[in-house]
Amino acid sequence: RSSLHCDTQHRRVVDDGLIALKLLKKESFDVILMDLNMPIINGFETSIKIREIGILTPIIALTAFAKEEVIEEVFSSGMNDIIIKPFEPRKLFQIIINQINKAKTAD
Q1: Residues of 44-76 as b/e, b for ≥16 C-beta within 10 angstroms?
Q2: I need a surface site. Which of 7, 23, 59, 79 has the fewest CB within 10 A?
């Protein structure tokens, strides 16, 4: 059984992709939850830019669209997983734990 500890001192919420990129250049995280419909730079472009600067942190897409082309673009833009809204918190936590564990074993 896995558990997820949320360090409230190191959790950040940003309003757009540009702020996310600036933050990621200064701080590191175990996982990134990426809303696909952010203003200024959307989640797809933000993820591409994150990978271009060499950040390998797992990115989990959050979206209300389950269309195949959206799912394909999620993975082609460098994200590691996707969760479709609305979702059960337990499912989100399991995806987060799985991605963190994959990243730890890849190191």
Answers
A1: bebbebbeeeebebbbbbbbeeeeeebbebbee
A2: 7
Kind and range of the H or E run holding 54: none
Instruction: Read off the pLDDT of each residue in 69-97 and give the average, rounded to a whole number.
Output: 94
Q: Band the pLDDT of 3: cuts 50, 70, 90.
A: very low
| Total residue count of the chain as it appears in this document | 107
Query: Measuring CA to CA, how many Å separate 43 from each of 40, 68, 88?
Result: 10, 17, 21
Which one, of 96, 86, 92, lies nearest residue 30 by Cα? 96
Peptide bond into 86 cis (omega under 30): yes
Question: Hey, what are 71's tokens?
Answer: 């799912």
